[in-house]
Design a protein that fits this description.
2 helices; about 140 residues; alpha+beta
Amino acid sequence: MAIVGFNFDKMLVEKTNQIEGSVKVTNNVQITDVKEHKLPGSDIKQGIIKFNFEFITEYTNVGKIELLGHLLYTESPEKLKQILDTWKKKKDMDKVLMAYLINAVLVKGNIKALQLSQDANLPPHIRLPTVTPKVNAKNYIG
């Protein structure tokens, strides 16, 4: 299993309203298409599959971040054929491979979405670590 390429093809950040009160954030990551791929200008005989993905973060009534892109993946010719056949028949794939691909998208997608949310003045879509001061026990009266 090897991811040999990762690209964002579309990045959209949109703030539609001002933030008032609490904001509900939903995230969705999915593989949308699987196709055989040939690297342009390359004579590499190794088979490559292109997995298209979407990473969408929606802020209820406030905005949205949409990242579309693709992963390039290489494996033995037999495995590649099996992946393509399964996708064509069922629009599904092996759960281990799916987890591997989704985790790769989550790592890069979360970092990019965090940057874009900061640029658009949207709240972070993931919980960030915070520091809470320790209460001094001898001054505590509660």
